[in-house]
Amino acid sequence: SALGIGTLPIATMSTEAPETVATTAGALEGRELEWAVNTPELAAEHASINSNIIRTRFPPEPNGYLHFGHAQSMNMNFALSFEKLGVPMENRRTIFRYDDTNPDAESPEYIDSMKRDLEWMGWQPEKTTYSSDNFQTLYELAVKLIKKGLAYVCDMTKAEMEAQRELAKKRCAARAVGIDPDVEAPIPSADILPGRNRDNSVERNLKLFEEMKLGLHDEGTLTLRLKMDFDSPNPNMYDLVAYRIRYTPHPHAGNGWCIYPNYDFTHGICDSLEHIDYSICTLEFETRREPYFWILWALDMYRPKVYEMSRLNVEFTVLSKRRLLKLVNAKYVRGWNDPRMPTISGLRRRGYNKQIINNFCNEVGATRSAKVVQMAKLFHVARLTLADTTRRAMAALEPIKVVITNFDEEAGKNGMTFEVQNSPTDASLGSHNVTLTGTIYIDSEDFKTEDDPNFYRLTPNKPVGVKYHGGNLVCDEIVKDGDKIKLLKCHLDSSEGRPKPKSYITWVPSDGIKCEVRVYGNLFTQPEPSDRWEEELNPESEVIHSNAIVDPSVLELVDKKDVNEWKSNQALQFERLGYFVVDTDTTFDSTTREGKLVFNRTVSLKEDKTVKKVSSHEEEQNRKRVEQQRAIAAARDIMMTIEPKDLFKLAPDYKDKYSKFDDTGLPTHLADGTELTKSARKKLEKERAKHAKKFAKNKK
After folding, report:
1. CB 3.0-4.6 Å disulfide test: which of 184, 283, 304, 656 passes with 174?
2. Rounded Cα gap, residues 421 and 393, in angstroms
3. How does strand 241-245 pair with strand 223-226?
4. Bridge-based pairing state of the strands 508-509 and 439-443
5. Is residue 540 exposed (0-12), middle (13-18) or buried (19+ Cβ within 10 Å)?
């Protein structure tokens, strides 16, 4: 155009948006563009390098700890993608790349944690790389674009760029509905659109970019922008910033650079340099396809296939790095590895091992459908995984002291030491001994001062069975200290005619080990935290039982020397209470029995009863409501991918209703050939205008 929008000084090249090519059927294929098509020479070169190898990459930015979403990405890039593609094991390769282009947010702590988490998860990358290792190459490629007239140094402020972007979006929205953009959104000055620097000479741009590299300009004064297309319906094509000035040392590259490339400029180039076949990301990056492929097209570099999957969202948590960082910095949690955090480190500390996390990711899968996964699914996978592999022990979270008044008499009849299988389903896990003593501890949940017909454990008028001993425990006296129960005086009944108990309770002998037990619930009170998420934090997400006690058979398993934050620590099933793991706060010495022993509850033995306090009718109504909400959201997501000019051709509500269209995409005839009336076309034009506004707003 006369304003230089979407034009180039090189006659053989154009930045105008290419037509979208119809998506082809097959695994891991998405919306394709003409820019994405490799030349025969590039395709042949790539094939000669990779041969039968299919290569993916896992490229987290080291600006936080890995979380649920990264676990899904690892599962996809290291395994599931190859299964979908039918790639033999010997031909699978995955690169672990630190996408480290933002030194302000990155740190050695995050870099180290990601490496350790990846190793712990069991994934073995072909190699580990850093985007920053390509800084020199990226700089040279930026210079190449300047020389081609496809990049320029810009001195526009952030506010000016935002105004430029808004103006371009308004003009695009007007064009989409057949309105003259010069009337709807006139350009006040060429300084704003296309911008006062866009037509600077190649020589001036090279000089200024070199000065940026040498540190001759302040932060925020100059950027390098790509000369893309302000007429594009995709705002990501509005002359993206490729480089900015930052006087911040880089955690990996050191002090050698004061200009840093941004994500959009870097990741596609690194994919190409590393001979990636499939670049897999989440759906919010779908609109980044245009700049991804435009940059590689402009540099004549190999273009990998790009596939977007829905991001993993899990109930009662947040995965936004900004929010996770706020949780840590505001001390809402103990740190990045708090057992309530959705980070890999937090999950590991909670007691979720790599089998649980990977099995969970397999259960969830990877599709393009938006979804929020119920936390109950993770709990279910955890129970299935831990049930057959976790050693049993007895514990009391809120112990009540019990004195057995006839202990000596009962001990004389039978031995009080019992062999207990570590797992009732797997004899290979061995056994351990427990010894009933004259004083034992039971959990407060197993005793009530008054009888209740629905309570099948110990009360003053109802005996209860003693696990492993087999006899009955009968409460004779309650000794109180004020309102608090100090101890129970009970006797054992092992007589032939004793009443048959309705249940058996667990117990801990007098030489049990004192410990702290932390029971964790949901971090938030709402399944899908809102913008007021800080107000929705659950004040009961961590309940601490500081006077708990566990049977001494676990003594040699819980020593501090065996506790490590980067591995799965000792897991135990506390009978009738749940699955627990030794926490990293443990300082317990099993030799001296000194120091603090801390356990975290991983998951209860059964689904919490509170989850079931709804009728079947209510449950069905809730399910239908959730399905309806998700269907509406999915339909809305589909609509937001359809450009206004294609609304009546591609939108599900209009597809196949019309047979002819005018040059703007507005229908002129119904499917049966009947010509639309003027009023019908006017109504459709209003519908398209509404969609254009929503479409433009969604692209912000």
Report:
1. 184
2. 10
3. antiparallel
4. antiparallel
5. exposed
Q: Residues 194-243: pLDDT tens digits? A: 999 999 999 999 999 999 999 999 999 999 999 999 999 999 999 999 99
Residue pair 385/359 in contact (Cβ under 8 Å)? The answer is yes
Residue 524 CA to residue 536 CA, distance in Å, equals 6
| Among 32, 61, 410, 643, the one annotated catalytic | 61
DSSP-assigned letter for residue 249? -
Is 518 an annotated catalytic residue? no
Q: Which residues, at least 6 apart from 415, have a Cβ–Cβ distance to it below 8 Å?
A: none
Would you say how long the chain is, in residues? 700
φ/ψ region of 403 (left if φ > 0, alpha if ψ in -120 to 50, else beta) reads beta
pLDDT of residue 24: 31
In degrees rounded to 5, what are phi and psi of residue 484?
-90, 140
Q: Are 259 and 151 in contact (CB under 8 A)?
A: no
8 A C-beta contact, residue 209 and residue 260: no
Candidates 170, 244, 311, 371; catalytic one: 311
How is residue 624 written in tokens? 């239908």
Which structure tokens are listed for 495? 């007589």
| Statement: the pTM of the whole predicted model exceeds 0.85 | no
DSSP output for 365-421: ---SS--EE-HHHHHHHHHHHHHTTSEEE-EESSEEEEEETTHHHHHHHS--EEEEE
Count CA atoms within 13 Å of residue 582 on its CB side. Answer: 26
Least confident of 470-479, 557-566, 626-635, 648-657: 626-635
Give tens-digit pLDDT for 115-156: 999 999 999 999 999 999 999 999 999 999 999 999 999 999
* Cβ atoms of 77 and 56 closer than 8 Å: yes
DSSP strand pairing (391-393 vs 508-509): unpaired
Crossing angle, helix 678-698 and helix 616-639, to 10 degrees? 100
Q: Tell me whether strands 598-603 and 578-582 are parallel, antiparallel or unpaired.
A: antiparallel
Q: Identify whether the C-beta of residue 343 lies closer than 8 Å to the C-beta of residue 336.
A: yes
Give the closest residue to 123 by CA, choosing from 85, 94, 143, 153: 94
Nearest CA-CA partner of 12 in 407, 217, 236, 297: 297
**Cα–Cα distance list, 37 to 20, 293, 303, 304, 535 (Å):** 12, 9, 7, 9, 49
**Helices assigned H by DSSP within 129-190:** 135-147, 158-176, 181-184
Q: Is 465 helix (H, G, I), strand (E, B) or coil?
A: strand
368 catalytic residue (yes or no) = no
Residue 700 annotated among the catalytic residues of the structure: no
The 3-state DSSP class for residue 113 equals helix
Residue 237 corresponds to which tokens in the numbers above?
Answer: 């094509």
CB 404 within 8 A of CB 393: no
Give the active site residue among 321, 326, 368, 693.
321
Q: Give the pLDDT of residue 12.
A: 33
First to last CA, the chain: 24
Both structure tokens of 375: 């936390």
Report the candidate in 139, 136, 143 with the shortest Cα–Cα distance to residue 202: 143
DSSP line for 661-687: E-TTS-EEEETTSPBPPHHHHHHHHHH
Distance, in Å, from the CA atom of 43 to the CA atom of 62, rounded to the nearest integer, reads 32
